[in-house]
Amino acid sequence: MSTLPKISEAEWEIMKLIWKSNPITSEEIINLLSGRMMWSAQTIKTFITRLIKKEVIGFEKKGRVYYYYPLLSEEECIRSENESFLKKVYDGALNMLFTKFLEEELSMDQIEELERILKDKKEKRISDNREEHK
């Protein structure tokens, strides 16, 4: 996977809105974020400009209004952030991450959900292997 641009926490807030509702105008983004995040309109516009420069979002101008849309999927960005975190904190060792996670107190519901996810993943892997060997 090619390295994706680093998105700051503040930029993530804007990206969440763009992924959810696109195309979206800067006015809509400002209205949705300014009260919740206590950011000025100019601060939000600065974050939008940074995202454009990082080639994470694009825009289309219609009249005097700019409409923003994602150039990268939410899934791509999450995967990149996960890989970055894993490398930074656990030297890329996924098993260490899971070990630390599982040392936490988990409810029965959480344990059952994890078991279900692992079972589904295992079944998919087995199915994929069978398809490869046909």
UniProtKB/TrEMBL annotation:
Gene3D superfamilies: Penicillinase repressor domain, Winged helix-like DNA-binding domain superfamily/Winged helix DNA-binding domain
Biological process annotations from GO: negative regulation of DNA-templated transcription
Listed InterPro entries: BlaI_family, WH-like_DNA-bd_sf, WH_DNA-bd_sf
Transmembrane segments: none
Keyword DNA repair assigned: no
GO molecular function: DNA binding
Record bears the keyword Transferase: no
Domain of life: Bacteria
Positions in coiled-coil regions: 104-131
Assigned keywords, A-Z: Coiled coil, DNA-binding, Transcription, Transcription regulation
Family, per entry: Belongs to the BlaI transcriptional regulatory family.
Designated name of the protein: BlaI family penicillinase repressor
Source species: Lacrimispora xylanisolvens
